[in-house]
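ok so i was messing around last nite and threw this chain in just to see what happens. nothing serious, just curious
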Amino acid sequence: MKKSLIALAVLAASSASFAQSSVTISGALDAGLQSVKLGNDATQNKMGTGIHGASRLRFVGVEDMGGGLKANFWLEMQPNFETGATSAELFNRGAWAGLSGGFGEFRLGRQGTNNVAAVCDIDQMACYSGFYGGGVLFSGQGGPGAEKSALLAANPTRGGAGQAASTVAAAADSTRYMRAVRYSLPTLVQGLGINVTHAFGTVQTATAGAAGNTQGIDANYTSGPLKLTAAYAKAGADAGSDKTGNLTTVGAIYNLGFMSLGGGIQSEKASGTAVTFTKSDAYALTALFPMGAATPYVKYGQRKYSGGTMGDVTTAKVANVGVRYALSKRTYLYGDYVTNSAVVTGTSMKNMTSTGLVHNF
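result:
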């Protein structure tokens, strides 16, 4: 009898343990139509995917081990509705594992940069809309003057030399770190969140040292209708290079009820031999106007470069207007127009008009 009771107790404990583990599947699907006008006045009309923010499929796991201690993981990919393919890196949008508890949270793996967190706060729409779901986000992948060098940056470009080895992969993505160790502090003050990250570049050796490492920190504070956000990142030189850079973002969002205003400024500084620029400054303003199911929005910003071999250049004067219309809590339609008046020649994007559907699940 006692053995039976013990066996039942062990089985119950085991069942409770399994019940505390969970894996959820979620994501967002975006498909629509777009018309793009280039600097040389050529027009491209096509069906697109990820126009108003990349489509994504994610797997999130949590195991509650008791006493507040949890094991967590995140795997997120990016399907393409045009071809049915995924990105070159299967889980390009996130791949990390970690532990959380009263001490805060540790994450190890591929995850968002510190500056992208602050930029998407300022954007107010998670960096959706605009040129291929960038909102007020600057991709940086093409370097200064390229079609995506607009508005706020997600990571230092080190004077136009590109992101550090801790960021760039087979498919460059300036919004995420690779090989990153991230620590989120526990709540010290109500409404305050702080995250610190170290992302490894190449393996450190006795001769080359640590190449292409990045360190970053971001913080946000929410009190009633006001949210303050800030971030800083420093990108070291890759092996065989002396080019380094740092990026600072500061912003605020205030909800007035009938509208929500956001604004931010950004500064990037760089040093090294023959860098394209030594300093870059940008600002962005955003406004949302909730009207029941419809949410019109307006965004505007500029980016200027100075110093280096490029000299003083304004590469972006971007205006973005549009509207979302909620069909349900999970599904909405969008109409969007964005223009970069600094683009006057070449094959960079001058403006883009798009309409489509987003379904969250």
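not much to say yet. Residues 1-19 have pLDDT under 50 and may be disordered.
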